[in-house]
Amino acid sequence: MMKHSLRFPFVLLVLVATALSCCSVGRRALTLQPIYSGDASSSPPLVAEALNETLFVLAAAEPGAEELRQDVEDLLGGNLESAEVIGGRYRHIEIWRRGAKPGGRSGLMARLRFPARGEHPDHSRVFPEFRKLLGDWFRDRRQFRPDVMLELLERIKRPIDLHYGYPDTGRPYATCAVVGNSGILLKSEQGDLIDGHDLVIRLNNARIAGYQRHVGSKTSLSFINSNVLRSCSLHSGCYCHPYGGFVPIVIYICQPAHFLEYMVCNSTHKSPLLVTDGRFDTLCARIIKYYSLKTFMEKTGNHPMLWGKFHDQKMFHYSSGMQAVVLALGVCEKVSIFGFGKSPDAKHHYHTNQKAELDLHDYAAEYEFYRDLAERPEAIPFLRDAGIKVPSVVFYH
Ligand SMILES: *[C@@H]1O[C@H](CO)[C@@H](O)[C@H](O)[C@H]1NC(C)=O
Ligand SMILES: *[C@@H]1O[C@H](CO)[C@@H](O)[C@H](O)[C@H]1NC(C)=O
Q1: In the chain, what percentage of residues exceed pLDDT 90?
Q2: 143-284+316-395 has which fold?
């Protein structure tokens, strides 16, 4: 397999490079210098600087961008239907492609189901707000603006502090803990250490009951992806609070249709329910793609152009943990990272028996990123253009 990839036809490489350079955002045009051009032994070594440049260009390429655009346009142009399901237990909000008739299933683009009992969003407002939120997010999503990091204090920390009644200092938290869900936590008894931080961020509603000795019991901020929010929306009042209903939630959007869930949940939610900025999503995506390309190149010896043969290019995504860590960089002076990492004798998640990792993430690349954060943050591309002073980061194994 690997052998075969080394013999990737040179002509094809040139074609791929041409296609990529059309949408490149690099300062210079992509100079193609494959490490291996048919016969590895006779090819010239790649100039390090050109290779760096290639990594930047490839990190900016988004193979799924066209599909995302199409999805968003369809959703923005669709018709809203709202229906009471027979039996009365659920209400549905549906988005149909404009012109498509209910009943013709192919026209259905998004459906939100939520319990008929309990609080309800004001249906007349759902669609205009959905359109506005989705449109704004998508506009921002298409911008590459590392300086969005400078806005996190205002956009994330401020609403949290207002909610908790903390003074509005405009300053970062002195200490933050980002608690990942890796099974390695169960060996550590770091619960008290974690709880000693000013801000404790937990991920994707991982349970803490029964694990406090290892994972702590304090939660200041719950960071979830919108798939988790979607499952919450099936509960009365969008119950999404394993840490208590008072804890603010930050969500990143995996699918544009999930703004429907957001609308419904936000209308019944008592604590802040904040969505990550589209520019922030793009920054995180680019950083992790860069690290994935770089580790791929270093581990396999392949040209980074071949990365797409080994990864699901359109689905590839940073993990929730990675984005929570980057969020902490913008609102904290000192960041401690717990429960990230693997060990052969540890479970994937401390609180579940899930075996397999999702292959749309590249955890090895994310660990390289965390290592650079702790040891040489100045080497991290894109982040160093953000205009922030990267806080000191300590990685607890
Ligand atoms: C390539 O980028 C890395 C950071 O990822 C940097 O440490 C290195 O000096 C760069 N090399 C060249 C030749 O620019
Ligand atoms: C979410 O709900 C809060 C409280 O009702 C409201 O202030 C806020 O504007 C809503 N957020 C969005 C993005 O609609």
Answers
A1: 56
A2: sialyltransferase cstii, chain A (3.90.1480)
